[in-house]
Amino acid sequence: MSPNPEESAVPEEAHAADAAEPAPAPDPEVDATVTEAQVRVHRSPRYFRFMLTGAVVFGVIALILTYSFPANPTYDRGQVFGFLLAICATIGVAVGALVALLIDRAVTRRARTVQADRIDVRLPGAGAELDTERGTEPGPESDGTQSNGSRPSVDS
């Protein structure tokens, strides 16, 4: 038993299996192009979640308003609740979206610029191989390039 808990959690067979497998050799027929670019990275709020939260909160407010006032002889409480729910849910969605926009503005000020690498891979025989991202054969409009997206390398 080793004193380091990270080492004791992984069996020694796993270390031996990792050491026994050689790294795959790069395919000499694949043409890869690496393009470096400066990109701005910042966190962004989930707008749908903010709008849904606003609708739910204002829905609860509609329920509270329905039962906080005396009953109306013309309309029953279900009708009053439905009317208030329609109005309050709409207002809640708008308020939730506004809060998300304000948070997005505040977070954008703390954005940072990082170096990113974009890797474009051109495979030989564009019509014969499979598109690895979609699992299908590329169509006739495909030129055989695949983009692996960008991986930012953070320079602190």
In short:
The chain is an alpha+beta fold.
What can you tell me about this protein's structure?
This protein has 156 residues and is an alpha+beta fold. 6% of the residues are buried. It is built from four helices and three strands, in the order H-H-E-H-H-E-E.
Pick out its properties:
disordered N terminus, 44% helix, 156 residues, alpha+beta, 4 helices, elongated, three-stranded antiparallel β-sheet, single chain
Average pLDDT taken over every residue: 74
**Secondary-structure element string:** HHEHHEE
Record the strand order, biggest sheet: 1-2-3
Q: Output the number of helix runs.
A: 4
Shape: elongated
Radius of gyration: 28 Å
- Biggest β-sheet strands, sense, barrel: 3 strands, antiparallel
**Beta-strand share of residues:** 15-25%
N-to-C terminal Cα separation, in Å?
A: 37 Å
- By helix and strand content, what is the structural category? alpha+beta
* Sequence stretches where pLDDT stays below 50 over 5 or more residues: 1-19
Helix content: 40-55%
Please give the number of β-strands: 3
Topology:
Elements: H1 5-9, H2 12-20, E1 31-41, H3 47-68, H4 77-108, E2 112-122, E3 145-153
Antiparallel strand pairs: 1-2, 2-3
Helix pairs in contact: 3-4
